Amino acid sequence: MNIAIICAGGNGERMHTKENKIFLKVGKKPLIYYTLKSFYDYEPVDAIVITARTQDIGRLKAIVSRYGIDKLLFIDEARETRQASTYSVLRKLDGMNLPDDSYVLIHNAVNPFVRHVELDDCMRAARECGASLLGFRAVDTIKVVDGGRLIDHTPDRSKVWIAQTPQVIRFDIALRAFESAYEKGLAATDDTSLVEAIHEKVKFVECSRENFKITYPQDIGLARLIHTRRMKEKSVWYA
Question: Fewer CB in 10 Å around end: N or C, the chain?
Answer without folding.
Answer: C
